[in-house]
Design a protein that fits this description.
Layout: H1 3-9, H2 25-65, H3 71-75, H4 77-83, H5 96-112, H6 115-123, H7 129-139, H8 149-155, H9 162-170, H10 178-183, E1 186-189, E2 192-195, H11 203-234, H12 237-248, H13 255-266, H14 271-278, H15 294-317, H16 323-330, H17 335-364, H18 367-372, H19 380-389, H20 394-418
Antiparallel strand pairs: 1-2
Amino acid sequence: MSVEEQLAAGQTEDGIVRAADGTPLKARLAKALRREKLRSFLMISPLLLFIVLSFLMPIGDMLLRSVENKIVQNTLPTVVQELERWDPASEELPDEATFAALATDLKIAVKERIHTRLGSRLNYEQSGFSGLFRSTGRAVRKMEEGPYKEQFIKADEDWGKLQTWVVLDSFKAPYTAGYFLNAVDAENTVDGVQMKAENERIYIQLFIRTMWMSLAITFMCLLLGYPVAYLLAHLPARTSNMLMILVLLPFWTSLLVRTSAWKVLLQGQGVINDLLVWVGFVDDADRLVLINNQTGTIIAMTHILLPFMILPLYSVMKTISPTYVRAAKSMGANDWTSFWKVYFPQSVPGIGAGAILVFILAIGYYITPALVGGTSGIFISNRIAFHISTSLNWGLAAALGAILLVLVLLLFYVYDKIVGIDNVKLG
């Protein structure tokens, strides 16, 4: 190629292809790509900002609250420094200098009216701290100049107990694992981390109950929803659309109304028991207990979440061509074989989508279990709601929520390894 032909093609003697204005074509292309990426990023930035503000930041705040514990350090800074020298394993109370530091810090805390907040925080770890700091706050104003140890023990005998100081020492750091220990029914003691007494363990049992009941509800929704979705997918369009209205009807009814209706149906003198007595299935004196237990929760939540299983199944089944089943039958397969070997595998993506949707919704429900579950049918979400709105123990609620999040992610991982997330489809 001659020099004139190279220049006409945009290629100079140095071998670099240039644009008409003489700039390297590669640089122009890279600049155009950067501009395109920037334009694409600006287009999705509102959605990205929404996800960060409404999803990532709340999760981050929850994780922070589950370990944050600066209230002890901020309220009793001098005591925290003195406790660095104290060894809880010695089984002896801190020295006089620590009690003097306690007097100094408490006088400031009482003046600023923040000592009761510290008492409420430590009361989550061991009952009695709220009253301890309240009574000591009144007494510390009247204390004379040292020695302080006897005066504090006289003001409240709990200051003379080793466990009181063990709790203070355990939660002096700005971050703590105490909330997570409580969330798994454990606690810090003089001898280290130990499980709580049998009659005080509630959270592990609630986690197990939440998981297996959510799985049971998911299975029941699949068992009931698969035939309905199959029927809707194979009926004529006009009939199918009319029946679909019945599937969507619960979405137009208040959740509270539906749950209250189940209370009427399931109670001892309710419609279901009356019907069973009338047909002679049960005796009038031995009516079934269907409310305020796990049975009531499973029944009510299966009804509420059933549409979330039917809709993904229906959308996938509508895409399955009937010619596959006819081809299997033409080759000698019976109805069951053609369904199980040909049709069912193609509906698995809808099963996966519906199962994930129902399971995620089930573990987070707390209104329905609270109304029909009684004491044996509530979920861990009910305890989280209790700590957020009633006990105001947000740290423990955050720890419970974080553990629930980890369990769900672990189940997703197992599901991905066994079935594969890529096989989940909505049609």
